[in-house]
Hints:
Blueprint: E1 3-10, E2 13-20, E3 24-27, E4 32-39, E5 43-47, E6 50-54, E7 58-62, E8 68-71, E9 79-86, H1 88-94, E10 111-113, H2 116-130, H3 137-152, H4 172-178
Antiparallel strand pairs: 1-2, 2-9, 3-8, 4-7, 4-9, 5-6, 5-8, 7-10
Amino acid sequence: MTKxxxxxxxxFGRVALLDMDTSLVPHAxxxxxxxxxxxxxxxxxxxxxxxxxxxxxxxxxxxxxxxxHYAHRQSDQRTVFLALYIEPSWLRRADGIFASCAGPAxxxxxxxxxxxxxRVLRTEMVQRIESDGYDDHREVAELIFRLTTSIVxxxxxxxxxxxxxxxxxxxxxxRRAIR
Length: 179
């Protein structure tokens, strides 16, 4: 049975620490979904028709409305996942470079290697969830944003995103002058 060790909810969507020992049926949702292994044996996720290993050094990226499922492999140890269900509208508002995050193929690849910096942020996020709550909602949202962007930035499709220097400049004449 899957048990939630903790769930954070907010404008960002939700972030859950899931202790899983059963499979999940194929499903899809409107969120940008990031799956990281927090502890336990390696497992397998399938995104559309691609089977991917979830290991200490990998992340699974699932586009909004992309079909995915989890096929649990039996083990004496349970696997705990850190699952981020990121609200595309929050991510777009947080940084205009993510304007296309709700579209198909925002993540051109589903399985990616993660860096040591991402591992540190993952550990911090797991500790935050396991601490039974949080006082500063802005601090938690900032941690979620840093973790999300650290993972997403190198692996997302930026077509159609406004150039960094144009973000937040409402007047087209000023944007044109900057260009």
